[in-house]
Amino acid sequence: MNKFIASALIAAAGFAAAPSFAGDNISGEVGYVPQVSSAKSNLTREAVRADYLQAQRNDALPELGEGADVGAVASAKSTLSRDAVRAEAVYAVRHGQLVGGEV
After folding, report:
1. Whole-angstrom Cα distance, residue 100 to residue 93?
2. Phi/psi of residue 3, each to 5°?
3. Does residue 78 form part of some domain?
4. Model's pTM, two decimal places?
């Protein structure tokens, strides 16, 4: 019974100490500091969206960072047709240059 009372006292002490951390950010990302900006923008939402779409069409968006497509790899444009690429893949699988799979 003494272990039960000791556990209850430890838990109660923990709950009593919890409000003392109310001013601290103890949840969420480590090192998170809220960004507060007092600068007001003169751009409308539509203007910002139009700028974004224009940058997207011109390939002027950053490749890394928030909002970037991390899975996409920037590479040179291929001059091969789809059939030529498929033929190369079939050749590579048949001659043991690639591990087999659906081609």
Report:
1. 6
2. -65, -40
3. no
4. 0.30
Strands (E), the chain: none
Contact 85, 78 (CB under 8 A): yes
Question: Residue 56: which domain range?
Answer: 42-67
The angle subtended at Cα 67 by Cα 72 and Cα 57, nearest 5°, is 70
Residues of the chain with pLDDT under 70: 1, 13-37, 63-76, 100-103
Q: Are 93 and 100 in contact (CB under 8 A)?
A: yes
Give the list of residues 6+ apart from residue 91 with CB closer than 8 angstroms, or none: 97
CB of 71 closer than 8 Å to CB of 63: no
